Amino acid sequence: MKRILIIGSTGQIGSELSVRLRSIYGADNVICGYYAPPFPEGFFEAGPSVEIDALHIEQIADAVRKYKIDTIYNLAAILSATAEKNPQLGWNVGVGSLLNCLDVARDCNCAIFTPSSIGAFGPNTPKDHTPQDTIQRPNTVYGITKVLGELVSDYYFEHWQVDTRSVRFPGIISNVTLPGGGTTDYAVEIFYKAVKGEIFECPLKAGTFMDMMYMPDALDAAIQLMEADPSQLIHRNSFNVTAMSFDPEMLYASIRRHYPDFQMVYAVDPLKQSIADSWPNQLDDSCARKEWGWNPHFNLERMTDDMIRKLRTKRENGSL
Ligand code: SER
After folding, report:
1. What's the predicted TM-score (pTM) here?
2. Ligand 1 pocket, residue 80 CB under 6 Å
3. pLDDT tens digits, residue range 99-145?
4. What is the distance between the alpha carbons of residues 45 and 25, in angstroms, rounded to a whole number?
5. Does residue 289 contact residue 176 with C-beta atoms inside 8 Å?
6. Are the beta carbons of 120 and 167 closer than 8 angstroms?
7. How many whole angstroms separate alpha carbon 38 and alpha carbon 58?
8. pLDDT tens-digit profile of 50-66?
């Protein structure tokens, strides 16, 4: 049985990963580290939680010792567009929290999961069927911190045998907690507009393809990798994973199957467009499939149907 600490448990991924981990390992074995409001509904009643500023290593170490933690999921992040606008914050959180968590993992003998991203690739990376091992010269603050995370995590494994593992997440689509300041956020926001009957202003041009994944698959990816037999892992930091690749037009068409009158107009955000243009169109995730059995369940249509069903229910309940 694991004893898990989640750093960033109130964010887009953390708010759902905590629920899934608790259903597997038991509520009391998953400690939710939080930094700032807003808190998901019922957060403090659902299980143990602890305030942690990941930039203060002693706060992480104290929680790890107090709760006898053996596995850390470090989800603290400043997403790509926000990090470009506030590079100092991007460096501090992207690098600071990473090194603090790795040091605590090494000193307290913990396994550690750190998400990397499609942002770890750059303009001269092959865009289609992007290989697992390829050119990584990102030109964003976010991307540079993600590459650093991959390299440093492999270093901690090789030099100190820290059990570091990571996936390169694509854009994550979810209906519980909104992301903030990411280049892929449009693929979440569009659903809220459709269900509310409002016009969606798309910040990216038609023809901008990026990898995406529905949250249930993203949770599977993280948990499955952390449960994988280490003897089967040729790679560690970090695995390409994807579930679908689409551009705004394809997503719009999929949503219009449910809302034929829904309107999308383009209001291109030059910063987000330039970031998206530097990222791959579609990753090759065959190493993840071979080494630990990655196999996503949601394609564009299934994800769209489920997102709309969930958001409609929220709307009917008056919570949207
Ligand atoms: N969703 C992230 C972003 O857009 C990419 O990993 O910043």
Report:
1. 0.97
2. yes
3. 999 999 999 999 999 999 999 999 999 999 999 999 999 999 999 99
4. 17
5. no
6. no
7. 24
8. 999 999 999 999 999 99
